[in-house]
Amino acid sequence: MSAANFPIVLPPVYPITDKELARKATHLEILKELVRGGARLVQIRDKRTPAVELLPDLRRCVEFAARRGVVLILNDRCDLVMSTGAHGVHLGQEDLEPGAARDLLGSEKIIGFSTHTLPQLRQGTGLPIHYLGFGPIYPTSTKHNAAEVVGVRKLRRACGLSRKPVVAIGGIGRRQVREVLEAGACSAAVISSLMQAENLALEMELFLKEATGKV
Question: Is 72 left (phi over 0), alpha (psi -120 to 50) or beta?
Answer without folding.
Answer: beta
